[in-house]
């Protein structure tokens, strides 16, 4: 798997875990196995089993390059340009979003077969859903509520943890009110996906603390003020801050 939301230019590596869940460590004895699979038959290649003493969950972010390379491809980040929406209308974005949501299910099923129970969902699942001009609610996408619930029910039944990571432009401490407004809109969009899937608050949305803008204490004060006054509860119950050893560390 790959942390990138695009198809690789070279043949994908069938094994490259890129995320870990240290807060939900497993306690089973013996070293864990990281296994590679064959894209052709989805079978485990026993000659390439790697051992580790790691006790957390290993997962990946957004794109399964093996499933992406299939025909038809399975992935959750189909998107488009605004020029395409001008030509085809917002229903085109709705159709892409619906197919993206449907593909969560085979991705979870593939993960279960390969012992992967931790995955970050793509922020691009519903193209332009939080856009100022082209934005829309998930309820506007016909049939998507049922699909998201089905995917969420499957994840819960199998014990999979699904999370999201809004982009680097989600800056609650920005001195620009427009940036803050767009950030909150994007966070509400992410929260609505997880809510419609029926996932618990353990399905978090990881965000960066953001820039310091030349005055770290002022940026922190803005973040706190915006958080208390502007951020809705559906967002607050899911947001966690990513450790940033440069600007905003756990210390």
Describe this structure in words.
The radius of gyration is 19 Å and the shape is globular. It has 251 residues and is an alpha/beta fold. Strand 5 (118-120), helix 5 and strand 6 (161-163) form a beta-alpha-beta unit. Helices cover 35% and strands 10% of the residues. The longest helix has 20 residues, at 177-196. It has helices at 65-68, 82-88, 90-102, 104-113, 144-158, 177-196, 216-229, 233-236, and strands at 19-21, 32-34, 50-52, 57-61, 118-120, 161-163, 205-207, 239-241. Strands 1-4-5-6 form a four-stranded mixed sheet, with no helix packed on it.
Give short descriptive properties of this protein.
single chain; 251 residues; alpha/beta; two-stranded antiparallel ribbon; 8 helices; disordered N terminus
As a whole number of angstroms, the C-alpha radius of gyration is 19 Å
**Structural class given helices, strands, pairing?**
alpha/beta
Elements, N to C (H/E): EEEEHHHHEHEHEHHE
Q: Strand order, biggest sheet?
A: 1-4-5-6
- Mean pLDDT over the residues: 85
How much strand? 5-15%
Helix content: 25-40%
Main sheet record:
4 strands, mixed
Low-confidence stretches: 1-36
Number of strands: 8
Number of continuous helical runs:
8
Q: Report the end-to-end length measured between terminal Cα atoms.
A: 32 Å
Envelope shape: globular
Question: How would you concisely characterize the structure shown here?
Answer:
By secondary structure, this protein is α/β, with parallel strands linked by helices. The chain has helices at residues 65-68, 82-88, 90-102, 104-113, 144-158, 177-196, 216-229, 233-236, and strands at residues 19-21, 32-34, 50-52, 57-61, 118-120, 161-163, 205-207, 239-241.
């Amino acid at each position: 798997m790959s942390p990138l939301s695009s198809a690789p230019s070279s043949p994908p590596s069938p094994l490259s875990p890129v995320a870990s869940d240290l807060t939900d460590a497993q306690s089973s004895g013996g070293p864990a196995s990281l296994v590679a699979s064959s894209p052709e038959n989805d079978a485990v290649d026993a000659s390439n089993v790697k051992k580790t003493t790691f006790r957390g969950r290993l997962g990946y972010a957004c794109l399964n390059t093996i499933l992406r390379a299939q025909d038809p491809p399975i992935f959750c980040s189909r998107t488009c340009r605004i020029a395409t929406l001008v030509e085809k209308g917002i229903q085109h974005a709705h159709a892409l979003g619906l197919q993206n949501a449907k593909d969560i299910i085979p991705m979870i099923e593939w993960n279960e077969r390969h012992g992967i129970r931790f995955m970050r969902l793509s922020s691009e699942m519903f193209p332009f859903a939080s856009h100022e001009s082209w934005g829309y609610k998930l309820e506007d996408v016909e049939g998507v509520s049922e699909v998201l619930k089905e995917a969420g029910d499957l994840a819960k039944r199998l014990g999979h943890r699904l999370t999201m990571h809004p982009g680097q432009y989600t800056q609650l401490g920005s001195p620009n009110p427009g940036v803050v407004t767009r950030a909150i809109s994007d966070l509400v969009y992410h929260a609505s996906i997880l809510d419609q899937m029926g996932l618990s608050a353990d399905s978090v949305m990881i965000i960066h603390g953001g820039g310091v803008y030349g005055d770290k204490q002022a940026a922190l004060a803005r973040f706190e003020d915006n958080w208390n006054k502007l951020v809705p509860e559906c967002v607050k119950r899911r947001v966690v801050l990513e450790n940033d050893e440069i600007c905003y560390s756990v210390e």
